[in-house]
Structures are given as C-alpha cells and as structure tokens.
Amino acid sequence: MTSINQNYLELQGSYLFSEIAKRRTKFIQENPNAEIISLGIGDVTRGLPDAVLKAMHGAVDELAAPGSFRGYGPEQGYDFLINAIIENDYKARGIDIATNEVFVSDGSKCDVGNIQEIFSDNSIVAVQDPVYPVYVDTNVMAGRSGKYNQETKRYENIAYLSCTAENDFKPSLPDRKVDIIYLCYPNNPTGMTLTKEELKVWVDYAKANNCIILYDSAYEAFIQEEDVPHSIYEIEGAKEVAIEFRSFSKTAGFTGVRCAYTVVPRELKGLDAAGNEVLINDLWNRRHTTKFNGVSYVTQRGAAAIYSEEGKDQIKALVDYYMTNAGIIRDGLASIGLEVFGGVNAPYIWLKTPGGMDSWSFFDKLLSEANIVGTPGVGFGQSGQGYFRLTAFGSRENTEKAVERIRKLSL
Amino acid sequence: MTSINQNYLELQGSYLFSEIAKRRTKFIQENPNAEIISLGIGDVTRGLPDAVLKAMHGAVDELAAPGSFRGYGPEQGYDFLINAIIENDYKARGIDIATNEVFVSDGSKCDVGNIQEIFSDNSIVAVQDPVYPVYVDTNVMAGRSGKYNQETKRYENIAYLSCTAENDFKPSLPDRKVDIIYLCYPNNPTGMTLTKEELKVWVDYAKANNCIILYDSAYEAFIQEEDVPHSIYEIEGAKEVAIEFRSFSKTAGFTGVRCAYTVVPRELKGLDAAGNEVLINDLWNRRHTTKFNGVSYVTQRGAAAIYSEEGKDQIKALVDYYMTNAGIIRDGLASIGLEVFGGVNAPYIWLKTPGGMDSWSFFDKLLSEANIVGTPGVGFGQSGQGYFRLTAFGSRENTEKAVERIRKLSL
C-alpha cells in the first residue's frame, strides 16, 4: 500500500466546529421542541447587499452568450477587482500596493492554510493562544509542529503566545527564535485589537529577528476606534516582513459566496538553502497559479460591487447592524456581572466563564439551559480555557432574545 | 530571514500557458492587424446552458434575504449536488458511491494539485508523458521529484510513462516500483482513451503492486464510443486502488464558474509508518475541511441544474457542438496528409508536426503564417516533442476558418 503523510496522525481530534455541531445535533434530537439560537460559528446571517446582488445577476447574464462569456480568468483575480481593492483598501489609507502584490482567492481559510507551503518545513511557527485552529493544523500537516503533548495540550515545536485577561489579550514577544508569526487582528476569537504603537513593536521585532508575520485581517471592516490600524502596512517597514490576509466573508456576507485576497509585497524576501534571497511574492505566485484556477467570475463581480458608492453604504449598514448586536451582547452580559472582552472593533464577544467553569461545561450549560450555541474558548487553545465566544452575527431579534435568556440563568 | 521551501527552486521555467501568452502578446504587438484564432488553451467559449443560468439567478435571489440566505455550506458540498452526482454519474452506470465519498471543490486543477499532500513525501510518482503539468509541478513543490536533469529534461525521481504514436499513446506499465500513478482519460493532451480491458490492466497492476491510481477524468462527458469507460470504478476492484477526479469545467462551460468533484472510496487504504492501514478518505476529508471552505452556493446550484432533464439536453448539445468542431479539425488536417490523433472521445486533437519539425517551431509557424495559437506538445513533456495540440473549444466559424488556413499552409 501507498504510504501516507504521517504528519496527519499528529492532528488532534476533529475540527472544533464539527464537535459543536455534534453536540448541538444530539441536543436537538433529545429536545426536538427547543428553539436553538446559534451565536457559535462565525457565520453571517443577513442577505447580501443590493449592489452585490445586482452585480452577480449581471455577471450571470454575461455568461449566457459567447460574446460576453468569461472562461478561465487570471488565477490572481481580475484587474477590475484588484484595482478596486488597491484603490479603496490601501491607497485611500496612504498605502501603495502594486497589482502584482494582490492575489484574489476563494477564502482566507484557504489562504492562511496554504501560505505555509512556501516556507521551509523546518520553520518554527508562533501562534497566539487562543488561535484560529487552521493556523496550527496546517502546520501539523506539514510536519512543523512536532509531537502533541497530551499533558500541556500543545505541540512541542510550536511557540504559543498566550493572550488572556492577565495581559489584556496582548501577546508577549516570543521567548525563543521563531521564523513565522501568525497574528490575527481584530482578533478571532477574542475580538481584541492592537494599537498602531503596539503593532509596531511586532513589525520591529520581525525586522530585527528575521521573521515573517502572517497578518490575518479578516475582520478589518469592523474596526470602529481611531487608533486601531486597518492594515499592517500602516506600520513603517511592514512590507519587508508581513503578508496580509483579507476576506469579504464577514465584511459583505460572502461566507457562502467565497472571496478573499492576500497581499504579498515585493519587498518581502526569504532565504534559500544557499543563503540567497528569494522573493516571497514569486513563490506565492507560482503556488497560486499552479494549484488554483481563479475565483468564480460571478463572485468577483459581486466583490467589486462592494467598492461602488452604493456598495460602500450598504456594507457600512451591514457592519453597523452586527456591531449594534455586539453592543447588545456586551452590555447585556456586563449588566449581570460577567467579564466581557472584544465586541468593540470586532463582531466577537469573549467572556470569562462565571465561577471558574471550564469552557465546555459552560457550552453545555448554555445549550441545555438557555438553548444557545456558542463556542468554547478552549477549542481555540489552552489559554482559551475558562473563556467563551459569542458572535454578533445573529439577527437582532435572536441576539436580544439570547441576551435575555442568559440574563435569566443562575450563574 | 525566513527559509523558503527549497523544492520550489527545482521548478522549471514558467507554466506552459504563460509562455504561450507571452509569444502571442509579442506577435500581436508586432502584427496589430492579425486576426488571431486561439485553439490553444483548453478553455470553452460557448455560453452557459439555460438551465444553469436560471439556477444561478435563482441562487443569487436566495442570497438576498435572511430567510433564504446561505452562509458557510458543508466544505464537502451540498447534499443536493452530491446526490445528483451520485445518481447520474455513478448509479446510472451501476456504480455505488456513498455521499461521504464525494468531495465537491472549486476545480480539478486544485484537486489534482492538492491530493498529493496526503501521501508520504517519499512516494514515487509515475506520470504519463505527455502530461498535464500540474501533476508534476505539485510533486516538485512537495520534494518528490528529485533533481531536474537538463539533458533528459526530466526529474530523476519521477517515473515517466511515454505515450507516443509508437505505442498508440497507451503507456507501458512502470518498469520500477512506484506508489502513485496519475492517469488521465480521456487524455489531456493527446485526446486518446483506453478501453475497459486496457484500464483493467492498470487496476490489476495497482492492486498487485500496492499503488494508488489518481484518475483524472475531467473530459469524461466527451466520450462517444461504446467500450470507453466513463469511470474507473466500472472496473472491478478499482475502489480499492483509485481516486477519481471530475470537473464541470469543460462539460458545462464552468471554467470561469469553478466547480469539480473528487471521489475517494472508503475502500481505499494507505499505510502509516507503523504499518497500520489508514483510510485515505479520512485523510482527504481532514485536508478538505481544514484548508477549504466549500464552493460558492451560486455555483453549486448551477452545477446541480446540469443534472435536470433540461440541463442534460443542453449539456449534450454543448458537447455535440464541440465534438463537431473536433471532427472538422480531424478531417481537415487528415485531408492534407497530417497524422492526427484524438478528437473522437475528447475535445483535443493531437497532431504529429509535419517534416519532423519541433513543437515550438510549429507553434511559431502556425502563429506567424496562419495566425493560429495552438499548444506545443513538448510543453507537456519530452514525449510530446514533435506533436501539437489543437482544441475543439472554439466557435464553429473560427474552427472552420482555422482549418482552412492550415490547409493553405505549405507544410
């Protein structure tokens, strides 16, 4: 028989959201009349903005006839979308990004999962803890994690940067040499952010210590406060050390439509075995064009419509809707004495479970007593133990109802 | 600086179609009035079938309102599509495939590129020569190829199975131990096929020699002859040794819409380092759910519509259109004494260049003298030297015009 990739055997359990789905399904089977409210998986619920719908219908019509039909597009994305991204997400903030530095894809999950391929298998990876599981699992699959330690519940070769209430969810710099640092801001799952000054510390560290920052900025659109950077490239020198990931999933309701993009500056370099400098942009371009064939034309037309005047207004309304939900959850939970974090520049509320309860016990309590599905913090890492994530992506009605139910619990 | 994946430096030149585009662009710049006909890259040109357009419009409408909105779907694809696939592509041919054996994706290029990840880095890979470059390049990236030999123009650790007119484009069995065999039927680029009996030889070989067949069947819809298998699972025992890849790209004009699927039978097993059997289906499921987030809902609704009665008729008309083109090219070229292959069960015509001309010289001659863009056979491997690929995906008018121009050449 053919030998398998042995690293897969180091993967632990199943993906967090599968476990949640399993417990939820079991509960529904046993309680068929329960009216479940899901504030668990970070999935949006509102309809797509009108400007997007109109653009998608238009694109479908174009595909009807040979004259306007579009087959294979550029793997990196169409210029009409790339130019809109550069103009609105970067140039408008004083950042210069070239067209060959933007790679449109079908999702940030794919991009942050695939990016590690272009680096050495020996790279030492640092992640925040709690962390989006994809960062860790994809490095386990590539053999960078080392063994899983059943006691510490951590991989021995991964550097975990703890983010808890004790350090205001701002990680300390690594205490050992690392090559790749995953940073996610606004953070999933904690909903917390860094100021420009705080992010500058990381950029400077990466420059001084020869590492690359993989900056996941999927929740950028939710930033409300002044001093929170929208792009890592607002920090001087970041182009020499950082790759940035952005997504339309949460910004514009694209979780089921699939569009994201990654910026790989031409200034960013790596080293080959002989010590020569190699452009990371070239490597990613080769990877992207060899293993990917572009995003659906219909989707790209929809994404570009977000940048129209009409689209921008509609996106703002969508973000406002969810951020109002976030405020309702924050205030509601705080009013009964729960310790809550996030929810100001991100659609995630991170709460400390009451009475030192562990995360999964709180999950089960919330499900059985309030019929609410949330996400156990420990599912994102050991530093998430004793925390719990609620999302602002529900309807207003469900969000208010959920908060009411939680207020009535004996906690 | 962070160390890169050193294997990328073993990749040769740029991707075939980039080089074609470069030469084409140069020619157009120098000859702005030339009326170019492209029979090069295997991209479709007709509009999408009505049934598909209708379904996509309907899906966009569903995304408008919270009640019918769809966010994240199952990474493996929606049941409505998976069930249609199983019913029509397998059950109708007497093949049992379970829902958890089908993985819907955004393209066969991605699937055949990504599948190698779940196997050991030490696996020995066999490919047909000529070959779709993605099979080779993705294994180079993973470090399975060994060094590139500038004289033989082949990687030292890859087993190349030559397919030329001498063996009627039917590869011999490997002459050394291999672990993974890529087979593509109907073949890209030669357009040739195997009979059931001939394919059975490969299935039996894989069983006897403990290897896995990666069966790329992206052109299945073009099969016209009786004895040509539509699925490798028509061969007894194939579920124990084969993964099958299918695409809607050419079948239904989805090159810009992005949908494909991969079948990984639960009978298929690999070995871990301790000698234990591992289900390949479990590994692929883990890979697919960790690094991919499902295909656009709009695309999946479009793909499912292909299996409606209306859709089936429209697909058949589309395939007939292209296969009539294939006949026109075949007959036209044969009539002036060119040796032509393929084009009977596939939209590709593979011709022997006249007078022993090499593939790129014939490319340049065809471009400069007939203003036709084709694909040099050598771009697919050394055994493609002296051959040339034309595709049947143009319009009828352009196809006829192209054949007329070739007939007038002095060859």
UniProtKB/TrEMBL annotation, chains A, B:
Cofactor dependence is on: pyridoxal 5'-phosphate
Show the catalytic activity: (2S,6S)-2,6-diaminopimelate + 2-oxoglutarate = (S)-2,3,4,5-tetrahydrodipicolinate + L-glutamate + H2O + H(+)
- EC nos: 2.6.1.83
The molecular function GO annotations come to:
L,L-diaminopimelate aminotransferase activity
> Which pathway does the record list?
Amino-acid biosynthesis; L-lysine biosynthesis via DAP pathway; LL-2,6-diaminopimelate from (S)-tetrahydrodipicolinate (aminotransferase route): step 1/1
What the entry lists under CDD domains is as follows: AAT_like
Entry keyword Transferase: yes
Q: Where is the Aminotransferase class I/classII large domain?
A: 35-406
Any Pfam family hit: Aminotran_1_2
Question: Which UniProt keyword terms apply here?
Answer: Aminotransferase, Pyridoxal phosphate, Transferase
* Record InterPro entries: Aminotransferase_I/II_large, DapL/ALD1, PyrdxlP-dep_Trfase, PyrdxlP-dep_Trfase_major, PyrdxlP-dep_Trfase_small
Kinase found in the keyword field:
no
Q: Which NCBIfam families match?
A: DAPAT_plant
Which PANTHER family does the UniProt record give? AMINOTRANSFERASE
What's the name of the protein?
LL-diaminopimelate aminotransferase
